[in-house]
Design goal:
The chain is mainly beta and 580 residues long. 8% of the residues lie in helices and 50% in strands. Strands 1, 2, 3, 4, 5, 6, 7, 13, 14, 18, 19, 20 and 21 form a 13-stranded mixed beta sheet that branches.
Length: 580
């Protein structure tokens, strides 16, 4: 039953404009992580013909239940109306993400952030649980919602995280692999009517030559698959694993621990075995199953069980002629919504990746070693230059073996580093230059001296000592360096009120907004008379105002007479300001 709704309908639980009883045909097509659309033909004189318009919504039976489709195109001829409609999910193709930066988020969190950052409000939401907890970064800039999730270019969910997206009307979910294992077996024999078999041998390899970093090759050179004799000849592939590197004791660091040659050999063998276990030595099979053609065959009855399948489901194809059982997934389908049956299914062997995640760096099949590595030597082999490129970095080296000189240039996503020097007892001694997004550092390779420069400060380190310059001034080993000095005198205190209790002293303008300190000392006890003795003195800097370059001093001295009377007297003092 196909139901028609207005373009702005929000409640799809009722019959809307009406049920399209005069529908001639309705074929739904869907592909994994791709398009989902339908083509509908309706009688021109049908009861609801006048209401079928662009942007109206259709509710249609599919293998995923009743789904909503928005009408995109309409054509009319003398007998019928032909409608092309896309799944309601593709409304997001007309929405827009201005700029959203996804940092250290899982796949489900990334989709949620995209849905929360569209220009136009919508009803779509993420549902369910994605068991993939890998966190990654991507930035979506000026993309529509569909491209941001399903796009094949960089900085999209599917490209960055992998996996598959499932859709149920306004609900979106994600998994490493959608669908279910059905245990359904399809019997296949060559020349069987209604099934077209395609065999793809383009990525098959039965003899692999693995190569590690720095031209590391196995003593046996290659490793054969158990199927090496199954084809017209051994199918050779050169595989470069640039992160498998021999690291001797002298080269070992905290980030790159010691790794012996035997360990490297073992790792190359393990990686090749993993490729064979993943099926790189077997072809990819694809089967297009036409239920229309099969309907006239005796095998049709056994295929009727497939009408309960859905996209991503796994079935087993039993290849009678080759005596093979192949696990295949449904990649796309054509579905007749009027009779709720498939017209066509495409199933294919589960795709085996010929790329492995090795320490977060892909090692891919390459045709020649020059694709990722280039090394040039002179005739005497005492001069050498090389360029090595991995997904993590680009490294250039130039070596003069006779003079023990070498320059290394390494570029990563984070920084650009130059190391130049001369080897001494196995260690490269010289100068290291590092440039990053925040600044650059120059220093000795042993770390004894460094100079760091950023947009906010410069710092020099010499052994255990350091100097620094920033907006607040200069310092050495954490102590400020001063270059301003000013001194003077003043009189403060006294009971008769001639002089203030607190005296404010103004420094010259050059001190304004500079850090400074003030020292004060007593100079003279004024105002004393006969038969008086000094009992006590008081002098302090009350406050310092660096903005206006002023400071306040409070002080006095007291005398006591022979009769025991105590009097407060004015105090003359000296001051010294130091700072800058």
């Amino acid at each position: 039953m196909i139901t028609l709704y207005k373009y702005n309908e929000t409640d799809f639980t009722h019959d809307g404009i009406g049920i399209l009883k005069d529908t001639i045909s309705c074929i739904v097509e869907r592909e994994l992580n791709g398009n989902w659309f339908l083509n509908l033909e309706y009688l021109l004189q049908g009861n609801k013909a006048e209401f079928i318009k662009e942007h109206c919504v259709l509710k249609v039976p599919t293998p995923s239940g009743l789904q909503l489709f928005r009408i995109k195109e309409i054509e009319k001829d003398m007998e019928s109306i032909n409608v092309y409609a896309e799944h309601i999910f593709f409304d997001l193709a007309k929405n827009f993400i201005r700029d959203t930066n996804i940092v250290a988020k899982t796949r489900s969190e990334a989709i949620k952030q995209i849905l929360n950052n569209t220009l136009n409000p919508h009803r779509f939401k993420y549902v369910g649980t994605d068991n993939n907890t890998t966190q990654k970064n991507l930035r979506i800039v000026r993309k529509d919602g569909v491209s941001a999730i399903l796009g094949s270019e960089d900085n999209t969910v599917v490209n960055r995280y992998g996996g598959e997206i499932d859709i149920d009307n306004f609900n979106i979910s994600s998994k490493d692999q959608i669908g279910k294992n059905t245990n359904l077996v399809i019997e296949y024999a060559k020349n069987m009517t209604g099934i077209l078999e395609t065999v793809d041998m383009s990525e098959v390899a039965t003899r692999i030559v693995p190569q590690g970093a720095n031209e590391l090759l196995l003593p046996e050179y290659f490793i054969d698959s158990p199927y090496v004799g199954s084809y017209y000849q051994p199918l050779v592939a050169h595989m470069e694993f640039s992160e498998v590197e021999v690291v001797n004791k002298e080269q070992a660091t905290a980030d790159k621990p010691e790794f012996s040659q035997e360990q490297a050999y073992a790792e190359l063998r393990r990686l090749v075995k993993e490729l064979y276990d993943n099926g790189i030595d077997k072809p990819n099979y694809t089967y297009d199953i036409s239920f229309i053609d099969l309907s006239n065959t005796v095998e049709y009855k056994s295929f009727k069980d497939m009408f309960s399948l859905n996209l991503g489901d796994i079935v087993r194809v039993r290849h009678r002629d080759m005596n093979l059982d192949l696990d295949c997934r449904i990649r796309n389908y054509r579905y007749n919504s009027l009779i709720n049956e498939f017209e066509n299914l495409q199933v294919g062997t589960i795709k085996k990746s010929i790329s492995l995640n090795i320490q977060k760096v892909q090692a891919e099949v390459i045709s020649t070693k020059e694709d990722l590595s280039l090394k040039v030597n002179n005739v005497n082999n005492n001069l050498q230059s090389s360029i090595t490129q991995t997904a993590k970095e680009i490294r250039q080296e130039v070596t003069d073996a006779d003079n023990k000189l070498q320059t290394q240039v390494t570029t990563t996503a984070n920084d650009f580093n130059i190391l130049a020097g001369k080897y001494n007892n196995g260690q490269l001694v010289g100068t290291n230059y590092n440039f990053s997004g925040t600044g650059f550092t120059i220093g000795a390779t042993d770390g004894s001296t460094t100079a760091t420069h950023t947009s906010s400060f410069s710092e020099w380190r010499h052994g255990n000592s350091s100097s620094r310059a920033d907006a607040t001034g200069f310092s050495r080993d954490g102590h400020p360096y001063t270059h301003l000095i000013e001194m003077g005198t003043g009189i403060v205190g006294g009971a008769i009120g001639t002089h203030p209790k607190v005296l404010t002293i103004q420094l010259s303008d050059v001190w304004k907004r500079k850090n400074f300190k003030v020292l004060v000392s007593m100079k003279n006890t004024s105002g004393g008379i006969a038969d008086e003795w000094v009992k006590r003195t008081f002098l302090e800097v009350v406050s310092i105002d660096t903005v206006n370059a002023t400071f306040n001093v409070r002080g006095y001295w007291t005398s006591i007479t022979s009769t025991g009377v105590e009097n407060e007297k004015e105090l003359e003092f000296s001051w010294l300001a130091i700072g800058g």
